[in-house]
Design brief:
Elements lengths: L2 E10 L14 E13 L2 E8 L10
Antiparallel strand pairs: 1-2, 2-3
InterPro entries: Enolase-like_N
């Protein structure tokens, strides 16, 4: 298996479903890794994204 392509995009995110409410400038990254392996005639692609944990930590 060989990686043939890597794609990355930064996308805005918001904790609110209403697009009228400002996101506060929050973004995340999504990455696609394309391989030379074919399944049903299409390349195998894996996706990943950056996840931030904003929940408070217990001491």
């Amino acid at each position: 298996m060989r990686i043939t392509e890597i794609g990355e995009a930064t996308i805005p995110i918001s904790r609110y479903a209403d697009p009228a409410i400002a996101s506060g400038g929050l973004t995340t990254s999504i990455v696609a890794v394309v391989t030379d392996v074919l399944r049903a005639g299409r390349p195998v692609i894996d996706w990943g994204y950056a996840q931030l944990d904003a929940s408070p930590k217990a001491d």
